[in-house]
Amino acid sequence: MTKAITGQVFHIIHGSFVDGHGIRTTVFLKGCPLRCLWCCNPEGQQKTPELKASLSRCTFCGNCLNVCPPRAIAITSPAGEKKIEIDRELCTNCGKCVEVCYTGALEIFGEIMSVDEVHRIVAKDREYYKRSGGGVSIGGGEPTLQPRFTYDLMKKCQADGIHVAIDTCGYTATKLGRQILDEADLLLFDMKGMDDEDHRRQTGVSNRIILNNLARVGEMGRPIIIRMPLIPGFNDSRQKIEDAARFLSRYKSIEKIHLLSYHQFGTIKYTQLGRPYPLQPLAAQGADELAAIQQILESYGLQTQFGG
Fold first, then answer.
1. Which of 169, 248, 153, 247 is closest to 202 using CA atoms?
2. Does residue 184 share a domain with residue 238?
3. What is the spatial distance between Cα 55 and Cα 53, in angstroms, rounded to a whole number?
4. What is the total count of domains within the chain?
5. pLDDT along the chain (308 residues), means of 10
6. Host domain of residue 87
7. CATH code of 216's domain
8. By the 8 A CB rule, do 7 and 141 touch?
């Protein structure tokens, strides 16, 4: 009997309009090789399940304390106010505490699912895809970090007539990872910037593999939508936008640039994971600054829109 191919999934969203064309179902996979300072999905960074703690929901019933094998959970009373604390060094993310948490204060980010299980879920929305020109988007995290699962899910969907978009940071050097990029129906390709030193400082990795992969799929004529986060003081100067525009304008299969304004919506997730938010709050660009960025990109013949 053939062993089922499984992957770590941390979220599935139905009815998305921002992850490609039409109405889409987006599958989020755990694991990412980058550590972007502004990351709004920190629950997708680690490849393994992680305990999510929404402590405002806690009633201090103590059920979790009794079942935690490593005794990683404690109730304290600093300044006379009850507080629940989780020792993340001790926590094994086994999920036993989740089973007895009746308020939903404790949950697990990440679930092992098979290709067939995920396919059955996304195939239920097939009629929406057909009517809207939509499909399935596989993101994360970084989907090429689980290459066998991602490739098999992509091919199963495609064989079923379902359009597949891959939302990628582009940082993959494996044969199967590159094959995923080459064979996707659409690539939602993140573009953080052209300067390698800046990229290392902001994301923890070089951008050379990323730019090489983007150049390769661009030369192949693969359909691409660029996603460009605009981080104040990091990649939004006129010079850096022009550098990116010159590079991107070489590839005619790039359909559009989605400009993603800076926000801090993901900061609550860092709290839920017991991590500090790695970036000091920044002042988002004003309307005039955003319009100037858009104008620069469009002056190179690139189509742009905000969001997506």
1. 169
2. yes
3. 6
4. 2
5. 87 95 98 96 96 94 95 88 92 96 96 97 97 98 98 98 98 98 98 96 97 98 97 94 98 97 90 92 90 97 92
6. 50-109
7. 3.20.20.70
8. no
